[in-house]
Amino acid sequence: MGTSLVKFSRDTARDVKVVARGWRWGRRPQVPRSAEPYVIPKETSVFPTKWARTPAAIAVREVLQKGALNSVLRFEVNPQVSGLDSLLKLNGPALIVANHSSHLDTPLLLCTLPDGMRRKTAVAAAADYFFDTWWRATASAIVFNTFPIERRGGKLSSTPGDLLADGWNVVVFPEGTRSPDGWMERFRMGAAYLAVEHGVPVIPVGIKGSFAAMPRGRGWPVPGRPSVAVRYGDPLTPAEGESAREFAPKISAAVSALLDEESTTWYEARRRVAAGASPSQSGPDAARWRRVWESTAPIKPAGSKRRAWK
Length: 310
Prior knowledge:
By secondary structure, the protein is of the alpha/beta class. Helix content is about 40%, strand content about 10%. The relative contact order is 0.13. One of its GO terms (biological process) is phosphatidic acid biosynthetic process.
C-alpha cells in the first residue's frame, strides 16, 4: 500500500509539472512573431498606473523597496556604486538613461539612488512584456513605479512628459530591450526626444556585470553573489536649438564612456573621451559565444585595473 501511494504521488507530481509547462500563464502568443501572418494590430487598452503614484502606494512601495527588494538584491549580488556625487548637480527632475542587459538593471538603479530621488522616480517599461497581464502589471507598478510604453513603434506615450512636468524622474532604457549577449545595442531616439522636448537633463548610467549575474532566460541571479558595477555620470543638458537627433549620440557616448571607465580607470577613460577615441561598447565582431564570454568577465575589484576590449 505504501509503495503504491509513493508511486501515485510521483506520477501526480510529474503530471502537474507537465501541465504547468504547457499552461499559458499570460497572453503572449505561442507562435513566433516571424511565423504569424500580418494582421492590422488591434487597439489595446492602456493599463492605468496613476494610482501607483498616490500617497498610499508610495508608502507601500517605500516599504517594499527599502525592505524586501534592497535586502534580496544585496543578498544575491554585490553592487559597486560610484558617481553619486553627480546627482548633486541636479536641481529638478531628470531622465535617468542606462544600458540594459538584465532584469536586474531596474532594481540596481532604484536601490542605489539616494532615497529622496528614488521616491520620486518612475520607470518606463515595455507594455507588451510587463503589462500583458493584470497581475504582472500591478506588481511592477507597485514595486518599481513602472508605466507602460510601446516599444514596437506607434505613438509616443504622453506619460513620460506628464511625469517630468509633475517633478518625477524617469528611468529610460533607450535600447528598448535587454541585450542578448551583454553588449550595448543601438540607442533609440526616445530619451533624447524627451530631454529636448521638455528641457530636462539626462543622467547617463553605465551598468556592468548585470548580464553575467542574471542573463536573459534566467529568473533569478546566478549563485555566488557576483559583483555588479553601477556608475553614474554628470548631467547632460541639450543645447539651445539642439535637436533630438543631434543630442542622442551624446547620450550614447556618455554611457559608453562610463562603461569604459569601469573597465579601466577614470583617467584613461577621460583621456580617450578628450581624444575622441573611446572604444565601442557594442562588443567584438565575433561569434556569439565569444561575445558572451567577453561580457561575462568578472567585475574588477574597487581600486584595481582591468583591460578594456580593443
